[in-house]
Amino acid sequence: MKINFHFIRYAGGRNNLFLLLILLSGVLALGCVSQQPQPGREWPISAEEYSSSAAGSTEKLIWPIDCKPGVNCDIFYPDIDKDGKANCGQVGSIGHEGTDIGISWGMMEKGTDVYAAADGVVKWVFDGKYDRCENFGLPFGIKLNDNPDCNDPAGPPQPGASSGYRVCTERGDYCNAALKTAGGNANCVWCFYGGNVIVILHDANKTSGVFATRYDHLKNGSILVRPGDKVKAGQKIAEAGSAGRSSGPHLHFEVWSDWYTPIDPWAPSCGPTGSLWRYKNPANQT
Length: 286
Ligand SMILES: [Zn+2]
Hints:
This protein is of the alpha+beta class. The protein has helices spanning about 1-10, 15-25, 45-50, 105-110, 175-185; strands at about 45, 75, 100, 115, 120-125, 165-170, 190, 195-200, 210-215, 230, 235-240, 250-255, 260-265, 280.
């Protein structure tokens, strides 16, 4: 079976396994349309472009990874309201609370930079997990990776302890007295399934209501920041990988409006109008 999936992965085009798994996950059955950008579509600007633009000219999010949608990466949109389709009307990852941006294995190996999407302070960092996981989303219980870092965790979540693809920490500020009363210590543990993960806190008053951004599945050993570090929008914080509960190399990028409400940066229509992205117009570079 492993040989068969390798065949699929390398059978022309980028990132076929990632696409295959999305299809297997049921998107096709729900009416799949091309995820390629439409002609004239506007995209978030890159970190390079951001750094050359006027400082302080935006308070919105910049594109968090060094790739061009539709050129060398693919977007799978969030479905925050879990109604079975991406909130902004494009192909989405059903029930998913983040944007998945898929790249090829070759791009991962070469090194694909991940950037802070806005100015902020690093809250949590998890590193050291194996980063070539492919087990997530496979049918019939198929496992391509034996590495424990790619597989289900064992035992109850514990702050500071990781198991399988799960990493856990204290909820910190979020874990107030009411939560403790309601759920005991279990309510004070916060776990992520992204293996190697960064969470950055932002000043929501300066970043269009964005309180935090989260970056999952990062390449093992690539993380350049530590908790407490101040980061600037566009600053390289890591490289993309396939750590954690993952089907192939991609960045899971999540946006929160508080502790803890995920929001869709693409809403309402996958485009610049009213969204949380800072865009450029490819036609006239303005
Ligand atoms: Zn994801």
